[in-house]
Amino acid sequence: MSYWQGKTVLITGGTSGIGRILAEEFGRRGARIGVVGLEPDVTDEAVFALRDAGLDAWGKSADVTRQEDVDVLFAAAITRFEHLDVLVNCAGRTDRGKVLDTQPEDFANLLELNFLATVRCTRAAAPHLIASRGHLVNMGSLAAKSAARWLGAYPVSKFAVAAYSQQLRLELGPEGLHVLLVCPGPIERQDDRLYPLRNDEGVPESALRPGAGVKTRKIPAELLARKILAACEKRRPELVVPAKARLLFALGQLWPGFGDWIVLRKT
After folding, report:
1. Which pTM value belongs to this model?
2. What's the confidence (pLDDT) of residue 233?
3. Low-confidence ranges of the chain (pLDDT < 70)
4. Suppose 147 and one of 61, 155, 175, 228 were both cysteines; which one would form an S-S bond, judging by CB atoms 3.0 to 4.6 Å apart?
5. CATH code for 8-266?
6. 13, 170, 161: which is closest to 87 by C-alpha?
């Protein structure tokens, strides 16, 4: 029997991208899935598609940057599932632009979605996850470990997620909560759209693509989803994909100047 058979999983940002792929993977392993999206129509469409695939799916639209929405979301999820085994904090967005072109308001807006929404949802889920000795999955990025050029407010928002995840591991790990920080490189997409840029003066077009021009292979979303589930089963603290990026992070901590040089060469 699958480890995930009968477990309940709630995924913010679960209507598209890696969140949607994770919902499908958990569902195929026998889990009951709750997907959360911003738009009601998109959320309903995702739930119908998951059910058509034979999966046990439920969904609710919510703006996870609003505490009132988060309160209603988790009340509804617990009413529906009665308990919670996994929360995946996957809602978020990226950013592009030079750091000096990034206004304080831009930082605040991205922190609200990429970091503070994770805090809100984690606080709501924590009592249920501790009771089930469950899993908290926080989606970071390679940019949560090493900042690069032209990413605007994105690295700051993901560094915050990394620090928060470590604090949670240290404080709540002894109570039975497993916390996994996922730090992937650019994930494969079906479309070729470019990310919008705040100011394109002196910024190469490659910065508008996934990874902002990082020289690494795109990660198949299905492969990443399988790695995340395996890391949860092993209760690992972090998942970095590609794994060789760990060497860059270590070198950057020991010799920041050398780390900066490597980042410049690799992006």
Report:
1. 0.94
2. 98
3. 191-194, 199-200
4. 155
5. 3.40.50.720
6. 13
